[in-house]
Amino acid sequence: MAPFPVLVTGGAGYIGSHAVLALVDRGWPVVVLDDLSTGFRWAVPDGVPFYEGDVVDTDLVKRIFEEQKIGAIMHFAGSIIVPESVENPLKYYDNNTGKSRTLIQAAVESGIPHFIFSSTASVYGEAEAKPLSEDEPLAPFNPYAMSKAMTERVLADTAKAHDMNYCVLRYFNVAGADPEARSGQSGVGSTHLIKVALEAALGKRSEVAVFGQDYATRDGTGIRDYIHVSDLAAAHVHALEALIAQPARNLTMNVGYAKGFSVLEVLDAVDKVVGKPVPRRMEGRRAGDVSALLADNSKLLATTPWQPQFDNLEQIITDALRWETKLQAIRESESQTENA
Ligand SMILES: NC(=O)c1ccc[n+]([C@@H]2O[C@H](COP(=O)([O-])OP(=O)(O)OC[C@H]3O[C@@H](n4cnc5c(N)ncnc54)[C@H](O)[C@@H]3O)[C@@H](O)[C@H]2O)c1
Ligand SMILES: O=c1ccn([C@@H]2O[C@H](COP(=O)(O)OP(=O)(O)O[C@H]3O[C@H](CO)[C@@H](O)[C@H](O)[C@H]3O)[C@@H](O)[C@H]2O)c(=O)[nH]1
């Protein structure tokens, strides 16, 4: 397969930077577009062309398509925090829906044949601990989820009307870091459970809150399907290759392990990995949360050669902890440079 350059929007962010690594490791030429609103320039590997800008800047986007001879887009750029979307829904409908629509239009006008979109398991809404297949009706429960569901619809309608080949990947809960610690979750003020728990373990926070103990789950806390970010990144490369192998495809696939852990189970695993109990505080439910989300991943397994490599909660936490420790050193050296 003759690779063409892939534009990764949001490639300086957590998941996008791992997708860049997965593509580069497999020999794909990659170009990154990111506005650095939550991403980091240093997260983009040396040698990967980087454009700082917004996906809504169509002049810039079309210039990148031409200059770099882009043949596919992986669109990660977006805003990702569920509680923030409840407080500020317009930010989410703008950054995740409106700006994605503009990017899709630029792709259509420039004849980019392949488009891969980062969606979320939260488009399914409340799931009652049963594995969700892609045929499940969508019931987005918060503005973040709705902003993604709307973009899925924009893509589906656009692909019917124009010559576009797209794949929607619905991620379950992404966690962990590159096993070689080349990248990891680096944003400040994260709300993600494993990241928050490890920050508490390393003394960057005083404790971790457990949001809600009255869900209809085995221990009353929320259940999620945690997937290692490097397995998720690999799924993108396989999805791209599947689109190329069979063009004119509209492919929507879950990416998860089909295995659920409750908040308390995750925190117990964190305690085990760090070797001490992380302080916990019981709190009420968090706005926008559902009780359980669990993937049926049989379509991804049947459609692509993807196989999980890191399907182990303790390994996910171990890799995340290694990155969290490295990140501490990066931040310290940044602040020394600033103070020098
Ligand atoms: N983290 C998860 O658990 C999870 C789960 C499901 C889906 N997703 C989706 O995956 C994608 C990546 O998420 P992440 O966790 O890596 O978040 P992130 O915040 O680390 O990465 C997002 C990146 O996009 C950039 N960005 C944001 N808006 C932009 C814009 N308008 N133009 C250009 N760049 C922009 C940011 O600077 C950042 O580098 C998002 O679309 C998110 O909705 C994430
Ligand atoms: O400090 C915390 C953080 C989270 N939780 C709980 O842990 C679970 C997971 O929460 P979190 O890690 O914040 O992820 P989600 O809210 O499930 O959302 C993530 O996973 C979704 C897919 O399932 C993605 O769409 C979102 O972008 C991503 O933020 C939930 O039950 C939360 O209530 C806590 O109890 N304490």
Which spans have pLDDT < 50 for at least 5 consecutive residues?
A: none
Reading off the top of the CATH hierarchy, the class is best stated as Alpha Beta
The main sheet orders its strands as: 3-2-1-4-5-6-11
End-to-end Cα distance: 49 Å
- Structural class of the secondary structure composition? alpha/beta
List the domain count as a whole number: 1
Sheet with the most strands, sense and barrel status? 7 strands, parallel
What's the SSE blueprint?
Elements: E1 6-9, H1 14-25, E2 30-34, E3 50-52, H2 58-68, E4 72-75, H3 82-87, H4 89-109, E5 114-120, H5 143-161, E6 165-171, E7 173-175, H6 193-201, E8 208-211, E9 223-224, E10 226-228, H7 229-245, E11 250-255, E12 261-262, H8 263-274, E13 280-283, H9 298-303, H10 313-339
Parallel strand pairs: 1-2, 1-4, 2-3, 4-5, 5-6, 6-11, 7-10, 8-13
Antiparallel strand pairs: 9-12
Helix pairs in contact: 1-7, 4-5, 6-8, 6-10, 8-10
The chain binds nicotinamide-adenine-dinucleotide and uridine-5'-diphosphate-glucose.
Uridine-5'-diphosphate-glucose binds next to helix 6 and strand 8.
Keywords summarizing the entry:
Rossmann fold, alpha/beta, 13 strands, 10 helices, 340 residues, binds nicotinamide-adenine-dinucleotide, binds uridine-5'-diphosphate-glucose
Textual characterization of the structure:
The chain is of the alpha/beta class and 340 residues long. It has a single domain (6-333), classed as 3-Layer(aba) Sandwich (Rossmann fold). The protein contains 10 helices and 13 strands. It has a 7-stranded parallel β-sheet with strand order 3-2-1-4-5-6-11, with helices on both faces. A two-stranded parallel ribbon has the order 7-10. A two-stranded parallel ribbon has the order 8-13. Helix 5 links the parallel strand 5 and strand 6. Helix 1 crosses helix 7 (229-245), helix 4 (89-109) packs parallel to helix 5 and helix 6 (193-201) runs parallel beside helix 8. The longest helix has 27 residues, at 313-339. Uridine-5'-diphosphate-glucose binds at residues 80, 82, 120-122, 171-173, 191-193, 196, 208-212, 222, 224, 263, 286, 289, 293.
